[in-house]
Every structure is written in structure tokens, then in C-alpha cells.
Specification:
This protein is mainly β. Strands 1, 2, 3 and 4 form a four-stranded antiparallel sheet that branches. It folds into two domains: about 80 residues, no CATH class; about 100 residues, Sandwich (Immunoglobulin-like), CATH 2.60.40. About 0% of the residues lie in helices and about 35% in strands. The protein has no helices and 13 strands.
């Protein structure tokens, strides 16, 4: 499968606990191979339609088969089954002011929390009518919020936009979902 994420994860840790990278094996020299497990997923990446899985093709790490490779050993005829692709779903949204007028070119921030919490948002910009679309898949869980494109103001936590929506948690369940994000104009 082209462009799908493949990573090595210590067998006694979960991919969310341990960033996938080259590091030491556990005491028995073991790793679990994780397929399409990204600690900071991009919600718009089309390969996310394939659920994260582990060798030999299970979605629960506890059911994964541990692979041990000794010095000088080579794995032959090694295949990992990828679960079926999830059905496509498109989240169509509009960012508006509380009076219903569009927020032109609002910033839309999103987190993909399908496989667990993430703290690295992806962003996109709404068009001049405040409209945006996110291509995803059924079962995908997103947290989204929108911010006005007006200047930042100082705050105790660093510069923050004065005008933004509350965070919305959305699970994509149909081929097309819609959301309306409302920003209250403060000035």
C-alpha cells in the first residue's frame, strides 16, 4: 500500500505512549510492527481510511503477534493484512458570526482523535463565504474550532485571537456531515 505509515513500537508500549522511531528493543529484543499508526495524524490524509493495525492484521495491539529477529536473521514471506478501507465521509462546514453572516477566511483547526487524544492540530482556511470541507471517513472523530482572521490580542497565555468558537466534537457517521461554527464578535 503506497504512502501508508509503518512504524516500530516497543512491544510493551502503545504507539500513543511511544513515538515511533528507531530505538532499543525491549529486554527480549522484541518490537511490534504497527501499520498506519500516526501519533500526530493529519485528519485530511486519505490513508487514514485504513484503520491502524498490528501484525498479522489485527486492530488491537494486545492481539498482535510479536516478531523476534535475531542477529543475522532475515524474515521471508512476511505479510501484514490491512483491514478494509473505511467508507469516505465529507464534513462540510460554515463559519459564521453570531448574526449569521459568514466569517471570511476563518482559520479552522482540527484534531483527529479517532485513535486517542492528539494535541497537534491541523489547520485549513475557510473561503470568503466561511465555507470549508474536510475529507475523512466514517467513524473518524474530530475536534474542530474556528478562529476569526482578525488581529491577535495579548493574553496571559501568549497572543490569542479574541474571537473563536467553542471546540466541537464530531464523529463522521454518514457520507456527508455538516457543521455550523458560530463566532461571537467581540469588537
Amino acid at each position: 500500500m503506497a504512502r501508508i505509515v509503518v512504524g516500530l513500537v516497543r512491544s510493551n508500549r502503545t504507539p500513543k505512549d511511544d513515538y515511533m522511531k528507531v530505538e532499543r528493543t525491549d529486554e527480549q529484543g522484541r518490537y511490534v510492527i504497527a501499520i498506519n499508526h500516526d501519533r500526530y495524524p493529519d485528519p485530511t490524509d486519505p490513508t487514514n481510511a485504513y484503520p491502524p493495525s498490528f501484525y498479522p492484521g489485527v486492530m488491537d495491539q494486545a492481539q498482535a503477534q510479536v516478531i523476534t529477529v535475531g542477529a543475522g536473521e532475515r524474515l521471508n514471506e512476511f505479510a501484514i493484512r490491512i483491514p478494509s478501507k473505511r467508507t469516505a465521509s465529507v464534513l462540510k462546514g460554515t463559519v459564521v458570526w453570531s448574526d449569521g453572516s459568514p466569517v471570511a477566511e476563518a482559520d479552522v483547526l482540527m484534531l483527529d482523535v479517532t485513535e486517542g487524544e492528539s494535541n497537534v492540530p491541523q489547520s485549513l482556511r475557510a473561503d470568503a463565504q466561511g465555507k470549508f470541507a474536510i475529507n475523512g471517513y466514517t467513524g473518524q472523530k474530530l475536534i474542530i474550532e474556528a478562529r476569526s482572521n482578525r488581529r491577535y490580542v495579548p493574553s496571559a497565555n501568549g497572543p490569542q485571537p479574541m474571537e473563536r468558537t467553542e471546540k466541537a466534537r464530531i464523529t463522521l457517521e454518514r457520507p456527508t456531515e455538516t457543521v455550523r461554527l458560530v463566532i461571537t464578535k467581540l469588537r
